[in-house]
Amino acid sequence: MNRRKKIVTKFNSRDKRANAKLHKSNKPAYVSKAERERLALLAEEQADTAVSDEA
Q: What is the pTM for the complete model shown?
């Protein structure tokens, strides 16, 4: 019984991992606080250059 159980659990865990890879999460990727700040500064600079180009 133990040998059969080990084999079955081995295959079940393999199936579980394969199934998990198929169903990816819809959660957005983590962006660090420093990266968010850097992106905000870049967006602000681009907005400033766009406003100065229009004038």
A: 0.45
